[in-house]
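Q: What structure does this chain adopt?
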Amino acid sequence: MVDMQSLMVPGGLIILAGSFVVAWFTGARRTYLLILSAAYIMLACAFCTMLLRDYVSKDVVLPAANFMFIATQILLGEALLQRRGKTFGILLNLSSFIALCTLYYGFYLFGTITSRTMAINVGLFAFMTLTVFRFWIRRDDSIHDKLIFWTLVALGVMHSVRTFGVLVTPDIADPKSIFWQFMQVYILLFAMVLALEVLASHFVESLDSLNSQRDRDHLTGVLNRAGFERAMHRFFAAPDSPMTALILLDLDDFKVINDTRGHPAGDAVLRQFGRILSSQSRSMDIVGRFGGDEFAIIAPGLDARAAVAMAERIRRQFSASTVAGIDADLRLSCSIGVGDLETKAGFDSLYRLADQALYEAKRIGRDRVVSATAPTTGEDPAFVFGL
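A:
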């Protein structure tokens, strides 16, 4: 009879496999979650197969169970790599599976329990080392990736202990030994740890994705007003650069475009402007749509001259662009105001300066860049027109 304690390990693994399926249905339909589920189911099946050793010939049970263990490790490695946007590929995975199974079965037929245990564990250790290496170079340095990495290392240590333990006494490779029972608990424990780490990472990434969608303007692709303000508050709460420039941008005659060409045309113009802002700004810049046709860029580390150069590139590219589906005679232009201050002065002071420059750009004819320098006490700001 199979006791209930022996069923705890495969039962626990099946529950963990189900958690990945649930995560797949409730999350972003990430393929690696289903592969992880398959890996845990395969591992549970391997343990269940080993429980049949008293009822079925060991020449069937042992190879079948070990083939499943091999498949488990390959599936696990592939899933963790896909989680980071990488893959071994079907050809390498299938070739590794066939090679490791052939290696094991050859030693099973013609070797001793010691030689086959050594051979298969050395092969699996090599595959795990390759997985850990590729995972490490694709990590994102998050706490989740670090935990997953060290869990994989711990599983690798398990293979090493078992491999070198067989050299001391072959009896530990016997499925009925105390060591085997310990290995079952060890594998279940680390399988649970790994599952919790991956699930936690998945849900954190899903939450980050939802937050990103919440903060993103669906039309232009830049931050919406709320997202811009959140990013701005985070930046000015812990500034990492002594100087910051603010670029305020306003589309010229945008209401006329909406009134004469229709709102679909206006939306197309906004999308075009959003693409230009994204392509001309740096990854560290905070780019947002204040509302309507008003946009802003917080540019850490830039002084007025560098910020004006960026603004001029945006203005010229927008003026030279055409929008698909809209008459070529539609002339696009924008007015831009630039201000720069020491970051510690805060956003409000920076905004007032850039807003004065934007007002001046509109006042003197639009379609131009104007920068404002901070005034001394009791004086008006000084304006610089273009480059």
